[in-house]
Amino acid sequence: MDNPVLFAINSTFATVARGLQAVPGSGIAINYIKDSYQNDPFRVVLELGLAIYAIKYMLSKKYRIDQNDVQLTEKEIDELITEWQPEPLVQTLSDIQRMELEKTQVIVGAQGPKPKVLSSGKNLLNLASANYLGYTTNEDIKEKAIETLHKYGVGSCGPPGFYGTLDVHIDLEKDIARFLGTESSIIYAQGFSTISSVIAAFSKRGDIIVADDGCNFAILKGTQISRSVIKWFKHNDMADLERVLESIHFETLTHKKRPLTRRFIVTEGLFQNYGDIAPLDKIMELKHKYKYRVILDESSSFGVLGKTGRGLTEVFDISPKNVDMIVGSMANTLAAAGGFCAGPKEVIDHQRLSGQAFVFSASIPAMLTVCASEAIKILGTPQGVKLLKELQDNSATFRNIMLGAPQWIELSSAAGSPILHLRFPQAALAATGVSTRDDEKLLLQEIVDEVAIKDSILITRAKYVEHQELHLPRPSIRISICATHTKKEVEKAAQAIKTAFGKALSRRK
Asked: What is the pTM of this model?
């Protein structure tokens, strides 16, 4: 070959080819590459483009973040440091917040129907705690708790999916499912995070949640965490619920949105912020009509409503299997801790991997788990039925006395509900010049303080995370009735509170 350059190139390629052919299996690889590029020209163009881009990127000028930094002198740096003021770790308390801290009653010793408070050293009739059936002082439950503590210790120290599941946890899940009449159930370590975790486990971005605007704060957080499309309907207004469902249906047809989007109706059984109950029969009708799933939060109604405490499904004679998810807290009626979700087996099993509060939280201590199981067993006995009857009688007694003062007390509650909210009527407040929310709180706090000092009654104002609430209820005094109080005690407390409401208004006139 006359040209020495071409001869050198040809010799180099020949040497490389012989070297590659000497490698075992190289012939198969060379034929595969040759066939791939011959039969797929798009691949050749794509890989050449990527190679060119990589070479260009490696040879391009490197960008330095600090190129445009402003150079400060030592004097300027010292001046900026001197002028800088750090933000406080805790914001300055408002007058209302300071008042709430000063007025908070501290219970000394065990809680119960008549706990002892630190401020006066007296035992007060407790109408502030959600101890509806008096299980916090039940001796049988106490004995079981002590036995379990000696056997299992204080806590499991691990999440349920790792090594935190004990036999008592499995037994409690079976007890809840058996008591409610559902296929399966799952327990969570914290009552507040149960409903928010359940909602977020099933409803995702793009799904639709239609919720009652009177729902509690935990439900609000669950809807926000899910990042779903949230539609609110007026509290317990079934006409407005149907309007919202119809508008979603019309929008889906008009804009041809995904017809298979997951859709949920979320409501409470017994509303914590209002004391009334949801019309579950009407909700179930709309569920079937518009093809929605229902998530029912029975945190306040489980163990309280119905002949045997099975909640709203028992009140309306609806099969629990027709409700997609029944969620509840074990920290109220059952005097334990944590929460549960009951429903079909596939719904429950899904949460064992997708329920964040289940996966990432240590399981409930065995002692509290056994307390919940024992409380459920009592509900199904004549003793439990008797307690429920006494609770409903006490609630009716308190409610009837309050209904006798419509001029200065506005009662928010359903018949048979152990939760009662007492507020001043708007007209009565206007007549006394009370116009702001803080003034209304101070007026209610006067009643709380007066009945504690004069009548030895422990009550409390309803508290809210006000800057995060979307639908903030009006200030109120929340009464929690207990079955272990006598009728005479309930009557005396109701009369004292009614009198205190009237005096508070008369002092402002």
From this structure: 0.81
